[in-house]
Design goal:
The protein is an alpha/beta fold. The chain folds into 2 domains: 158 residues, no CATH class; 151 residues, 3-Layer(aba) Sandwich (Rossmann fold), CATH 3.40.50.720. It is 37% helix and 24% strand. The longest helix has 19 residues. The protein starts with a helix and ends with a helix.
Length: 315
């Protein structure tokens, strides 16, 4: 929620600026509904709503919004425009651009959105009687990231937590995977039973680090179907012990670092231990897309790419 936090800071300081939100799309467009861009007094600060002349128009709209309140910009991405910008063609995108104002209720709603993992943010787009933005902790997991009302007077945004990736193993490869997944927008938990590896100082502050065995960690994590698990520990024995427990949790994605031979060895051992074949069939081994990755950083890129593909297909 960093863009909400930055927007709240600008608004509370009375520094000006605007928040642009992709509120409606039809056809093929370069960015999905809910994509945001923060505009400061000197121009774009964070995020993107499409690039090229689309953003140039949004910057102009941000200046206009400071005087008149929220404005809606509609862009028809015809073939000529798309070719010039290198964008997909044939779509229409509607972008709400609202000025950031130093009004207590407005700022409080932004701060609530920044602090919450999920909720609903409703913004009135008619400011003839003043700004109105309201945050509710109630969330609709099936709701779109943003929706513009038919009368174009209200923008409703459904804030949901990013998918969670649990990485078992904080060695060179596990750490690289955790960092790549975090950059790709996932909430990341990294688990290792060695305290010197599961050291919070080794990882970004936003990442949860658990120094515990798999038996002690799993009750803390409550792994769910919407989570992903990547197993990248220091050896077959540890991987097998973790996979034996994780395979039965119903998690939506399970990836195991290693070769096809490793998969065969571990799968045979776990079947003998009573783990159902169907639970083992969905394990991705080797984890990551087949891009010829060799270094920890290259492997991390391949795993992050596969996680992104899994996340997009799930939605």
């Amino acid at each position: 929620m960093t863009i909400w936090r930055a927007a709240a800071r600008l608004a509370r300081a009375g520094a000006g600026g605007a928040l642009a939100t992709v509120a409606r799309t039809t056809g093929s467009t370069p960015v999905p509904v809910g994509t945001k861009m923060l505009v400061g007094p000197a121009g774009r600060l964070e995020g993107s709503v499409g690039g090229g002349c689309v953003e140039a128009d949004v910057l102009e709209a941000a200046r206009a919004a400071a005087a008149v309140g929220p404005v809606i910009r509609t862009h028809h991405l015809n073939a000529d425009l798309a070719g010039d910008l290198g964008l997909s063609c044939g779509g229409t995108v509607e972008i709400v651009v609202e000025p950031l104002v130093q009004q207590e209720a407005y700022v409080a709603a932004l701060e609530a959105a920044a602090a919450a993992e999920q909720g609903t943010l409703t913004t009135a787009l008619d400011w003839s009687h003043g700004p109105h933005k309201q945050f509710s902790s109630a969330a609709d997991p099936e709701g779109p990231a943003a929706a513009l009302s038919e009368d174009r007077h209200t923008l409703v945004e459904h804030l949901l937590p990013a998918p969670r990736v649990v990485v078992f193993g904080a060695g060179h490869v596990g750490s690289a995977i955790a960092n790549a997944a975090a950059v790709a927008g996932f909430r990341v938990v990294i688990v290792d039973d060695r305290p010197e590896f599961a050291d919070p100082e080794r990882f970004p502050r936003a990442m949860r680090v658990v120094a515990a065995s798999v038996d002690a960690a799993l009750p803390q994590l409550a792994i769910a179907p919407q989570d992903a698990v990547v197993i990248a520990t220091r050896g077959h024995r540890h991987d097998a012990a973790i996979l034996e427990r994780v395979a039965l949790t119903g998690t939506g994605y399970v990836g195991l670092l290693g070769s096809r031979r490793k998969q065969a060895v571990i799968t045979k051992a776990l079947q003998q231990a009573g783990v159902p074949v169907e639970a083992l069939k969905r394990v991705r081994v080797p984890v990551g897309l087949a891009i010829g990755a060799e270094t920890p950083e290259e492997i991390a890129v391949s795993v992050a790419a596969e996680l992104i593909a899994w996340r997009r297909r799930a939605r």
